[in-house]
Amino acid sequence: MSKKLRILMIIGRYRPRIGGTEIQAERLARTLVQKGVVVEILTGRERGLARYEQCDGVHIQRLWIPDVGIPALNAIALGAGLYRAIRQRRQQFDVLHVHQALYPAYASVAAATRLNKPSIVKISSSGERLDLKLLSRQAGPLGRHAARYLIRHTTTFVALNEQIAAALKDWNVSEQRIAHIPNGVEVPALTQLKAWAAYRERLHLPSDRPVLLCVGSLRAAKNQSLLVTAMQRLAERGQDVTLLLLGDGPLRPILERQVREYNLNNQVIFRGRVPNVLDYLYAADLFVLPSSVEGLSNALLEAMSVGLPCVASDIPGNRVPLQHDVNGLLFEPNNADQLAETIAELLLDREQAAALGRQARETIKAQYSITRVADQYIALYNRLLTE
After folding, report:
1. Contact 246/255 with Cβ under 8 angstroms?
2. CATH number 3.40.50.620 given to 190-367
């Protein structure tokens, strides 16, 4: 009987905190366990959360870190705790897998290097928000040292898109040390996709006009302001459309003011963070992602998985799953007029929209299902253990 793979995952914060990185870590860990891999997660502990937990077969330990009110110092304290905890587990894991190349990754890779264990660091974002750039700006000279250390000692980096891979090469990471593995999603059964009217009624959404859906934290990189402007252009054309914004964040008051200024109070709905995003995907007519920066959007992949026609900004992260006029439509970033025209095109041609949605779902099934992504990680773990 072959020995089970044992993976130690590291992430700064974990469930019940929800974000793209946390969602991917939980989804991957659960699927790996289903495939017979032993997974333990080390993470920071927030007040009120249990120190130890097991969920879906995944072992979770939270390390208590005092909040000193300075994010950089909090990260350093978490790093010190992770270093000790990883060293104590030297006989309990085969591969270290870190989500995000931030300060906790530095301490974790340092521990793995000391133990002569292979390490994987997944880069979660690109452009100016590339993890290594953020780390270099964190904690002054120590952050720059941490980034350089990761570049030298991480066994393999995971890149979500070609822009991230190119950036890693600019940091002198060789192609041989870069694994190209995307984010993954669960693909719902077709039977779940046929209850559109029921979901509209349950979620108190209008049934007499198209509903556009945008999912993401309300911050500058997600660029919902552009979408609100596009809604104003659609209203000027006399198109009666509802925009549903899911998510919360620092820009919510500004976006709400923009909606009032454009007199769109009856067209734009803010629902904040919701636990049932999938229900809203089932209820919507069109998914829109206007981001200026993305690694590989969970929200976009989930929208594609349910066969929802998708419109997204033409940026590297979005071009990974979406091919223009094949399984979705791309528009010029920051161009509100073109975004409005693209939305109008799909609302007018429902046959085209449906065809793009069907092809989007097929793309997810073939390339981005979490089962397939987990298999890619298992292959990577095994390769690292035999090199």
Report:
1. no
2. no
